[in-house]
Design a protein that fits this description.
Layout lengths: L8 H23 L6 H8 L3 H7 L3 H22 L14 H16 L2 H16 L1 H28 L9 H18 L6 H15 L4
Helix pairs in contact: 1-2, 1-4, 1-6, 2-3, 4-6, 4-7, 5-9, 6-7, 7-8, 8-9
Organism: Streptomyces mutomycini
Pfam family, one: TetR_N
Protein name: TetR/AcrR family transcriptional regulator
């Protein structure tokens, strides 16, 4: 007779966290952030609401961790399927083509309902909650922005971008227009628009004869 094996509490905890993450993302997508509650997340995940309050101080904190976890899972899938290990901006030697590829992918993500709803919710909460805003920048925005800095510096070294250009300022010429159009819903966010943003930005960054 095999000895009794104690339940693996860490595995059970991981399952509960994953269920809570999935529930939070699903509810925000279905009913919106304002109507998503801790009670609703708990019911959807099949856990007690005290379990959630023990791990997170607010629904915004739950959503933040859920969003980060979703990104980590997507990255892991990309690794196993050959979708790219470093998840950086390609460096093919053609800066315009590389940036267009990445901005088109960004457009697709922002137009994906599963990503759009939690991103809008976190963006709004980050404006009014300084602590959440700092975490939002540190964990979500900054790693992505650094990818642009790295690629633009590589372009400077290759002579594609003027040496006096500040990569940190230059990346805002690429990111800000897409973010502005997406946040305000002024006009459709499309691949053609992403391409035009790159073309307009690079006219001001490129080395001139």
């Amino acid at each position: 007779m095999s000895p009794h094996k104690a339940p693996d509490s860490s595995r059970r905890s991981d399952r509960s966290r994953r269920a809570i993450h999935d529930a939070a993302l699903a509810l925000v997508g279905e009913v919106g952030y304002a109507r998503t509650t801790i009670e609703g997340i708990a019911a959807r995940a099949g856990v007690g609401k005290q379990t959630i309050y023990r791990w997170w101080p607010s629904k915004a904190a739950v959503l933040m961790e859920a969003f980060l976890d979703m990104g980590a899972r997507q990255a892991a899938v990309a690794d196993t399927t050959g979708g790219g290990g470093e998840h950086g901006i390609p460096d093919t030697g053609d800066l315009a083509a590389d940036l267009k590829l990445v901005l088109r992918a960004t457009v697709d993500e922002l137009n994906d309902p599963a990503i759009e709803a939690p991103t809008r919710a976190l963006t709004a909460e980050a404006v009014i909650d300084p602590a959440l805003g700092a975490r939002f920048v540190e964990n979500l925005l900054e790693p992505q922005l650094q990818l642009y800095v790295t690629r633009l510096r590589s372009a400077q070294e290759a002579g594609e971008v003027r040496a006096d250009v500040d990569p940190r300022t230059a990346l805002e010429l690429l990111i800000a227009p897409l973010t502005h159009r997406w946040l305000l819903r002024t006009l459709p966010l499309t691949h053609d628009y992403a391409d035009s943003v790159v073309d307009h930005a690079l006219r001001g960054l490129s080395v001139r004869p």
